[in-house]
Fold:
Amino acid sequence: MSGNVQKNRTNTDWVCLGKFGAPRGLKGELRLQIFTGDIEDLKSRKNLCRGDDKLPVHLNRVQVIARGLVVKILGVNSRSDAEFITGDALYIRREDLPDIADEEFYFEDLVGLSVLDPEGSIMGRVKEVHNFGAGDIIEIALSTAIKGNGKNAMVPFRKEIVTAIDLEEGIMTVALEDWFANQLEAKGDDKE
Structure:
């Protein structure tokens, strides 16, 4: 492995469970983009917080709709109240989460990992994990800009692209060049 792998990562005391979206209706309901698969667990949680200040929040109601979740928060009773919360993240303390198996992780654990290419050279760091509705995306802050892409890369979080994750060592291996080559090849096929 070449380069300088750094194990210092973001604050891991808090885990982001989701992000509040646009208000729905006039009575303070909000859409919630959720980063956890366990909706029933989310419904029962009493120790949730929101925003950068980690303000306590209690979800009175969690409703599954065709395009995600709608939640009602205690004390949020109007559309303008809901608009104030739009964009806030929903957090829980890591210590309040259930234990997970060794091969599992929270997305929060990936932020800050050093990103290596398959040969072991450092390419950058994991900046964020996103889900815009079509699957999980890893955002990488690159050490060196890639022509036509700049210093950030957004790659699908799939096994053929993200080939290895070692939380203990603080590294993620990504076949970035192969993925970019496939994207360029696919663009060329579209023009024919």
